[in-house]
């Protein structure tokens, strides 16, 4: 997400009709005038007061996205933060966990609004009672500033009134921009104080319990835009937003601001990569890139080969920006010949807990291999090659290594890719306390002997999910992969990774 914009210095139009909307101070004066007129018209009764709560109800077992009436944007935890005091803003709706809220009964018709991704609740900073006080997230201590009641407006919209201050949840200065801050303000029933509660789980859908795998494989999370991918690798950029590389002519690129909406962003080598053609038979289609960021540089390891052949090579490119056309070829890293027992495709870089760099790779043949990498150059260091996993020549490829909580987790894809809806790809995992292994599955079977614990397989309209990568984001780890729709199209899949009580990963 971009930086939160500074609230407008001048007035912002509330509707297209007036030339200028009233400022905060003038707006309050106009409300007072309106109330006075209502008193006169009603013979002393305040006829113009905002409608009170009467029918607003919620399901405390459900999750809701709160959509502002004036902007159509959702109540959002800024930058998906998980800490106390994180700012609450409005943002284009994407239905991420950071935009989902559960109403927790606080008694007497009040609720606490709990964030799905952080577990924290909506609060007014420092329990302030003044107009304009910031709304933040905070650990749930059930104080009055964390309690809100629902007040009905028209057309199915509600206002949220803070128990401590009596003021309404409000989008500052009626802004319609992404990142506009959320505050509290005197309840005047403005459209920037009206919220539509959109339920995002079907009635009866169980809420995920932390540490407990769901009973079935989850469908991919919602993504939009340019989502046709194969062999994706994605990172969060240090400046915010996301960069993805995937199989395609000259290595294809995509970007996203929110991990939901993606757009095409050109290719790594828009002028072609002629040094790869001895391995590709002249094709510009380059495979299975691995994207990472180290020491202010983007690193991209990528493959050149032809289908079914182990006459293959892995190359390195680097860039200071990651943009299309900004990449510099750093040359060959490792290659395999038809006489070799391994296949030099599907690279993945990991930095171990001692700061050493390693590159894993491999497909079919004798399985998944690993070599040491010089962190100063990104190139191969020494001649040693370690074996990490294999199936006796069977279908295994696409290694991804992740270091978490004392274990190195090795994700691989079993079975057949690239056959559209008939693909049988599935995602397996093993772990080790050493980056070079041995890796075992949950049952203690060695991955070098065909072992692996399955965490994702085809289900429903999700066919052949695999060639996974792990995105380490600010709100946790995510598995990024491709799968095939029933029409054979290769599409982007993303699911969050959880860890059970024994430390084994699962998806939800």
Average pLDDT value? Answer: 88
In CATH, what is the class of the largest domain?
A: Mainly Beta
Gyration radius from CA atoms, angstroms: 27 Å
Helix tally?
Answer: 2
**What's the multimeric state?**
single chain
Helix content: under 10%
What spatial order of strands do you see in the largest sheet? Answer: 13-18-17-15-14
> In total, how many domains does the architecture comprise?
2
Largest sheet: 5 strands, mixed
In percent terms, what proportion of residues is strand? 35-45%
By CATH, the architecture of the largest domain is named 5 Propeller
Q: What is the total tally of β strands?
A: 35
CATH topology (level 3) name of the largest domain: Tachylectin-2, Chain A
Overall geometric form: elongated
Distance between the amino and carboxyl termini: 24 Å
Point out poorly predicted stretches: 1-55
Write the layout of secondary structure elements.
Blueprint: H1 24-41, E1 64-68, E2 74-77, E3 88-91, E4 101-107, E5 110-115, E6 121-124, E7 135-138, E8 148-152, E9 158-162, E10 168-171, E11 182-185, E12 195-199, E13 224-225, E14 233-236, E15 242-246, E16 248-249, E17 252-256, E18 261-267, H2 277-280, E19 285-294, E20 297-304, E21 312-319, E22 328-336, E23 348-351, E24 357-361, E25 363-365, E26 368-373, E27 386-389, E28 393-404, E29 407-414, E30 426-432, E31 453-456, E32 463-473, E33 476-484, E34 490-499, E35 505-507
Parallel strand pairs: 13-18
Antiparallel strand pairs: 1-12, 2-3, 4-5, 5-8, 6-7, 8-9, 10-11, 14-15, 15-17, 16-19, 17-18, 19-20, 20-21, 21-22, 23-24, 24-26, 25-28, 26-27, 28-29, 29-30, 30-31, 32-33, 33-34, 34-35
